């Protein structure tokens, strides 16, 4: 028994070790991250399933116009019953009926229904492509965010080490009586503030990685390594090229979907109008009866039958007329929305061009500002170490550095967001 328990514990131990070492790790460039998300993102998988569902529904509508064939086998047992016809009687023997029926029906409404489902399928395709781009946009934003936060963490940790060194130096100076305790206290507060910023940035970085795992369809414990740097990805020429790109309305997914909505409303109006039209149904039926006795009996079932039905709508107390009116009003609404969408997209294009240009200019300024503030902080730290600067100078320059770093990060992310928004509007993503 003890041996079994030992073997079981050993097995659990090795399984745990194997699971730990088998933890998934992926190393990705931005392009690879986008392609990985296209393959594994669950939202995109659902969009692909919507396309397949739309195709299945379209085929169902088309099948109503194609021949329908059915067959049946019927067993009858009369339990010796005889029909009494006065002078003579006719026995009703047991029998098996074999029947096959083929029918086909057609109306204008069926044709319009197929066209409606064709439009629905096209809309599903557009939505799929739109979702694909949205997933790529989210991956790009999160990729940039993670890189920026990693760089910010490195900068903050470097500044924290400098402040900790200055704090140690100040405390020693206090001990020998050449510095005030308040000087050490001020720098200690600055160290605590910097530690808080470091921890906060690390938590934000972990949130960015968790969101990226979700977009990539990875397990929550998977490790992600980003193989590109923020400097490699910040391509000014690529971003500024968007400002000169022509805005083709027909390339925009929102505009494409609105166009399809107008077509859908137009076909729905046609469908209501076809309710006034007749419909026709034709069928052929073959029946064979096999008696299970040798007695003679009467068979009144014809073996072959052909039929044709013409259904003509006559009077509906105005319901069809009002249905057409409703569909017409709906079509006019969709047409008005299409015009509004066209104008709003043109205005949005102008605004996004302005945002990208303005944000990029702000980013360039913040890059220069961060370099200057970092240099001031480093110089002030050296001066304080040499005794020619006060602790107040150090804490002030440290606060300015933290502020400059936060402003730089915000400016960088605003450039990325502005670029992605304009790419999305133009439907012209520019990946490597």
Any overview of this molecule?
This protein starts with a helix and ends in a 6-residue tail after the last helix. It folds into two domains: 25-63 and 107-277 and 313-426, Up-down Bundle (Outer membrane efflux proteins (OEP)), CATH 1.20.1600; 66-81 and 89-106 and 278-312. The chain has a four-stranded antiparallel β-sheet with strand order 2-5-7-8. A two-stranded parallel sheet has the order 1-6. Strands 3-4 form a two-stranded antiparallel sheet. The protein has ten helices and eight strands. The chain has 432 residues and is of the alpha+beta class. It has helices at 2-21, 30-40, 42-63, 108-175, 181-216, 230-233, 236-241, 253-273, 319-386, 391-426, and strands at 25-28, 68-76, 82-84, 89-91, 95-106, 223-226, 279-291, 304-311.
Produce a short descriptive summary:
By secondary structure, the chain is α+β, with helices and mostly antiparallel strands. Helices cover 68% and strands 13% of the residues.
Shape: elongated
Average pLDDT over all residues:
85
Compute the CA-based radius of gyration. Answer: 39 Å
* Number of strand segments: 8
- CATH evolutionary superfamily of the largest domain: Outer membrane efflux proteins (OEP)
Strand order of the largest sheet: 2-5-7-8
Order of helices and strands: HEHHEEEEHHEHHHEEHH
Helix and strand content put the structural class at alpha+beta
> Which CATH first-tier class of the largest domain would you pick?
Mainly Alpha
Helical content stands at 55-70%
Low-confidence stretches: 4-22
In whole angstroms, the N-to-C terminal distance is 62 Å
Whole-number count of domains: 2
């Amino acid at each position: 028994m003890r041996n079994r328990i030992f073997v079981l514990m050993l097995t659990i131990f090795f399984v745990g070790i194997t699971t730990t070492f088998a933890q998934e790790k992926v190393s990705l460039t931005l392009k690879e991250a986008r392609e990985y998300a296209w393959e594994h993102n669950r939202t995109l998988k659902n969009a692909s399933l919507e396309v397949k569902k739309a195709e299945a529904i379209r085929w169902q509508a088309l099948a109503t116009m194609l021949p329908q064939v059915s067959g049946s086998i019927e067993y009858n047992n009369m339990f010796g019953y005889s029909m009494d016809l006065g002078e003579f009687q006719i026995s009703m023997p047991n029998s098996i009926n074999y029947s096959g029926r083929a029918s086909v029906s057609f109306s204008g409404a069926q044709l319009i229904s197929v066209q409606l489902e064709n439009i629905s399928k096209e809309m599903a395709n557009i939505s799929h492509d739109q979702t694909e781009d949205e997933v790529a946009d989210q991956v790009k934003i999160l990729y940039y965010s993670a890189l920026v936060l990693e760089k910010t963490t490195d900068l903050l940790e470097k500044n924290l080490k400098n402040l900790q060194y200055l704090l140690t130096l100040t405390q020693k100076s206090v001990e020998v009586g050449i510095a005030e305790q308040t000087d050490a206290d001020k720098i200690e507060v600055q160290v605590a503030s910097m530690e808080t910023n470091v921890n906060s940035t690390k938590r934000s970085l972990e949130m960015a990685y968790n969101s990226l795992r979700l977009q990539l369809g990875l397990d929550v414990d998977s490790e992600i390594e980003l193989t590109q740097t923020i400097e490699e990805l910040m391509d000014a020429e690529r971003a500024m090229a968007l400002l000169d790109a022509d805005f083709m309305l027909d390339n925009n997914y929102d505009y494409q979907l609105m166009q399809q909505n107008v077509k859908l409303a137009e076909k729905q109006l046609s469908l209501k109008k076809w309710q006034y039209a007749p419909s026709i149904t034709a069928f052929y039926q073959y029946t064979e009866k096999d008696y299970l006795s040798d007695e003679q009996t009467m068979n009144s079932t014809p073996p072959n039958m052909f039929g044709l039905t013409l259904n003509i709508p006559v009077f509906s107390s105005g319901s069809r007329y009002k249905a057409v009116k409703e569909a017409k009003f709906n079509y006019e609404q969709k047409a008005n929305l299409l015009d509004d969408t066209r104008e709003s997209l043109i205005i949005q294009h102008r605004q996004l061009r302005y945002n990208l240009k303005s944000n990029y200019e702000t980013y360039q300024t913040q890059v220069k500002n961060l370099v200057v503030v970092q240099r001031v902080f480093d110089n002030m730290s050296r001066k304080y170490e040499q005794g020619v600067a006060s602790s107040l100078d150090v804490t002030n320059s440290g606060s300015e550095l933290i502020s400059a770093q936060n402003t730089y990060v915000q400016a960088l992310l605003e450039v990325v967001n502005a670029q992605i928004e304009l790419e999305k509007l133009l439907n012209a993503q520019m990946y490597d």
